[in-house]
Amino acid sequence: MNASAAITVKQLQVHFASSRGAPVRAVDGVDMEIQQGELHGIVGESGCGKTSLARTIAGLQRPTGGSVTFDGRELDDWRRERLAFSRHVQFIFQDPLASLSRRQTISQSLEEPLKIHGLGSASQRRERILELLQLVSLPETCLDRLPRALSGGQRQRVAIARALALDPRILICDEPLSALDVSIRAQILNLFADLQKKLNLSIVLIAHDLAIIRLVCTRVSVMYLGKIVETGPTSELFARPRHPYTRALLEAAPSIDPEIERSCHVQLLSGDPPSPSSPPSGCRFHTRCPFSAPVCEIEEPILRLVDERTKVACHVA
Length: 317
What we know:
By secondary structure, the chain is α/β, with parallel strands linked by helices. The chain has helices spanning about 50-55, 75-80, 80-90, 95-100, 105-115, 120-135, 150-165, 180-200, 210-215, 235-240, 245-250, 260-265, 295-300, and strands spanning about 5-15, 25-35, 40-45, 65-70, 75, 90, 170-175, 200-205, 220-225, 225-235, 305, 310. It has an eight-stranded mixed beta sheet, sandwiched between helices. Strands 2-1-4-5 form a four-stranded antiparallel beta sheet.
């Protein structure tokens, strides 16, 4: 285990029962590390297991197999100290309107975690609430409002403030921008970047928009059908993608530059992703990969170092 890793994941499996018999292998043998103070992006197609991975790391979903280690202790040990764990690791959901109580004012929502953990007197909690508002750039006038009276961007800022109330070390954010207007996304992205630097937070950002990941993340992990197929520094991964799936994702992402868009050759993937209930043998991507070799159909590639900081699970990378 890397000494600077905040969270270490080893051979993590998250399977769900299915009415069709075979379980859905949402996460199926993931190895990864979240370094202290980094902004780590996780990308991939819908259904690849990003949310299941994030929820399991946050302790909201029990794993089927493997381990998640935080501060040198496995998650199972932390389950006996759930309140202590939640002070260190917080989760931000995709839809702030659904994650905030519609009957609580913003003040009540922000004070609730402080009350649960028995932190401070009423006046100290009020002071902390005002600090949180300042951190996420919200006016004090919103405290007596209900979530429905705020804009989508303001609600997401409230959700972020509530997650920060206990001074966590790690924020896990599941598509936190997808419910927001495009004009608001940049503001929330800048907020994440500022908070990460100011508070030395480790932030895990789940997203399907590669432009968002490229803008703010220091490292990226690419998931396909329950597996991480490539992970490395953002700048290197975008400049030189090693895995054919990563390359296809980057080529399919639209560019704001019309000259680049016209000159870009997009390598379209054939077919749809296989079912996570019955993944193909060997490399799970070989049924859609334009560079598939005979070994890819037989032998499953392991996630290996191809340079000092990049790992790839591919026979032909």
